[in-house]
Amino acid sequence: MAAPSPAPAPPVMSAAVTAYALHVPGDKPGTLPAALRGPACDGPEAAELLGRKGLLAKDQATRLALCAVHRALGRPPRAPRPTGPADPGAAVVVSSNLGNVATVAKIARETLDQGPRAVSPMDAPGASSNVIAGAIAIWFRLGGPNLTVCSGATAGLDAVRLACLLLRAGRARRVVVVGVEPDDADAALLHAARAGVPPGVPLRAAAACLVLEPAEAARAPVIELGRFAGREDAPAAWTPGELAGDLGDTYGAAGVLLTGLAVADVEGGGGPTRVICGDPEDGRRELLVRPR
Amino acid sequence: MSRVVVTGLGPVSSIGIGVTAFLGGLRAGRSGVSPIESFDASGFPHRHAGETKDFRPEAVLRRLKPEAWGRSSQLAAAAARLAVRDAGLDPGGSWTGGAGAVIGTTSGESQVVELLVAQQLADGFAGMDPEAIRRLPAERLAYAVAEELGLTGEALTLATACSAGNYAIGYAYDCVAGGEADVMLAGGADSVCRWAHAGFYRLGALTERECRPFDAGRSGILTAEGGAVLVLENADHAAARGARVYAEVLGYGVNCDAGHMVAPDEDSIAACMRIAHGNAGIRPQDVDYISAHGTGTPANDLVEARAVRQVFGDGAPPISSIKSMLGHTMGAASGFGAIATALAIAEGFLPPTINWTTPDPGMPWVDPVPNTARPAEVRVAQNNGFAFGGNNAITMFGAVR
Fold first, then answer.
1. What total number of domains does chain A contain?
2. Does A145 contact B at CB distance below 8 Å?
3. How is chain B split into domains, by residue range?
4. Which residues have a Cβ under 8 Å from the Cβ of A21 and sit 6 or more positions away?
5. CB contacts, 8 Å: A158 with chain B
């Protein structure tokens, strides 16, 4: 008689995905999953979704991130921005490695080339590394913990993990997780020089948003993070490499984007799905998405 | 939940490198501000900063090759190496398995940006050095710590701007308190550079030569740099190896103003203090000392002082700003604040606010510990960190029980 297989180790952390949106502008081949193929405005057209007011001096990544959150929260196009007190229980965690690099490079070029007076005071706040997370909080009145992570190819799943930690520690009731990357010339150049990128896979501008709440609080697909002993048999449905040919590399957005695809699969009747993120240079992180 | 203690301190600063020198700087009220040498500042009306001019990475780092890393990574890794040495942890010992590194930053490898932009302006994109590009990613700050020390746990860089050091300490605290790690290295690092100096200059936030927090004549910040890392350790793990303990991490609070990108908000900062006190399980009247964010801008210091008044009423404890000595070290700032706070508790003194001459009539309840360190018993202390984007993060420390 075969020895009974050991019980799977309990997950270290879990959370329910109560809403999500994948916002990937540009042409997309029909071979991509349906959840990715829908129309999505790029930065210059963000006013079509967000309304015009408040977008001045906002960079591409910030605009895409705002669009993804707007859609995840189910807000209609050009809906007025929320007003009233900020929700202290609603946190924001952003994953982006190249988010404001164009603004930083512009300021650095202007300073070096023309002197410090050439720098616009309108641009200066955009050089702050937490500009995307701050802008999301201001736009949607989210007053809880506000985090930005830039940990390379695993950043998207690092952000999900940070969100789960905030929920577990009782520091937030709801976490808006956003993965986002731009595709401007500075970002594309820096991305192409990365050691971990497969040759010929370009940077792709993309944003994705997950709204996470405590696992017991909602009837929705569940994310599990932690030890995966006994879970290796779960299908590894989503990895960055699977999309690279059709989509390109969404880099810091990838973990959030792939998790959104797994959630779409589960909502469509699929079983538990592993999401794997990272590369040989930056390491690896994974999570499991399962039906409730 | 496990108790979490501070067992090692690693400051790499303009007032001292290593805990003994840094403590001496705090006690003496030393200024680390000097004329800028890391770039040509002749185009600026403000030409002083807090550069860490005595930093020699090769004198501290054991495993990293300095030439393969940017200055911020070097500062982070050196600070971590010093913190581990101070903690008495065996280099390469079993503690490194599962131990993690969390490093906060505002501008990442800002001097590498400077170099690449100069190459780009001279010779176009093709002129940019691929090796320099590989040194650029900000995630390398945490990787540098992990590689220098051989850590196999979490390696995470948080870009929560000028409160990032406290965010890193908070994340590490949750990891240790939640049982996911016994030892975490946490803090922040940033480098002085031309473009960040220009950004603050154009926002009207720079002062000329002296940073004067809470003084009636305060007029702005001085940009600065450094690496500040603490060893956070499970209290039982520390006790089992007989470690010296500087202070206990009692908890922390984080929130976001969600109001304005650069203007701080009194009510939101007061709310963050209450969150931190609640998480630490203490009352305002228990707090003996506040290490202020205290940038020296008219707006920050007034808003911070008013938030203190809102939470503490007439019983506000002394509140001093070590930015008067260091300048604003950005992502490292609240890491340095945490080190100063732990030393205040362990050594029984209050770090001073130097350059202070004139009380601000708008904040008569503020005792800034003017100019001279003061002996004091510090049982509970609060370390404030605030940032653009309305990111507030406050860590709480207590004497060993």
1. 1
2. yes
3. 4-240, 253-398
4. A68, A69, A70, A71, A72, A208, A209, A260
5. 156
